[in-house]
Amino acid sequence: MTRKTTGDDIDGRLLRALREDPRAPTIALADRIGVSRNTVQARMARWDQSAVLGSFERRVEPGFLGYPLRAYVFTNVKQRLLSEVAAALDTIPEVVEVHGLSGVSDLLIQVVARDADDLYRIAGRILGIKGVKRTNTALVMRELVEYRLTPLIERLASRTSDRIQP
User: Fold this and answer.
1) In terms of Cα–Cα distance, which of 18, 17, 7, 16 is closest to 47?
2) Are 71 and 138 contacting, i.e. CB atoms less than 8 angstroms apart?
3) Full-model pTM
């Protein structure tokens, strides 16, 4: 099977239908977007194989788990120890996401904490990792735009109408 690198309008319509009703059965999704049940099953199987859909964990609010505080830790590391730093970060449960960056900082680490004292402990643990040179912690005060892909899904779902017009 050939792997697609980007989705098409059917993928967009299917993602939109899943966003509206994530628990909808395959046949209902097929009816909603006007394709066969086999098409829906094949698309979803392809998504599973190529990890198109993220983990369920992204949908769980950390506050519900007892971690209402969120912060980003900008981190500079010794480049030759980057793998070891990443492995050490993976052992800290409150580290929920790590991105390698270009620019002023090497890593952007998203952490969650129970309170300010817990955040202080977590930041200290990160700073204590061999290979971490410097950190700068920024507390999330308010989320102004939630993580979203809906506008991009809508754009993908409407590609057919764009192609039909002269």
Assistant:
1) 7
2) yes
3) 0.79
Q: Which residue has the tokens 């590391």?
A: 77
Return the SS3 of 76: strand
How many Cβ atoms sit within 10 Å of the Cβ of residue 26?
14
Which two structure tokens, joined as six digits, stand for 60? 């769980």
Eight-class DSSP state of 59 = G
- C-alpha distances out from residue 120 to 1, 85, 101, 111, Å: 49, 19, 23, 11
Whole-number Å distance between alpha carbons of 92 and 40: 38
Hey, what are 165's tokens?
């017009």
- Give kind and range of the element (H or E) at residue 69: strand 69-77
Task: Give the Cα separation of 85 and 27 in Å (integer).
Answer: 46
Say how far apart CA 44 and CA 161 lie, in whole Å: 23
End-to-end distance of the chain based on CA atoms, in angstroms? 33
pLDDT tens, position by position, 37-80? 999 999 999 998 888 888 877 788 999 999 999 999 999 999 99
Place of tokens 């049940």: 37
pLDDT for 147 equals: 87
Q: What is the token pair recorded at 128?
A: 């204590």
Q: At residue 164, does pLDDT exceed 50?
A: no
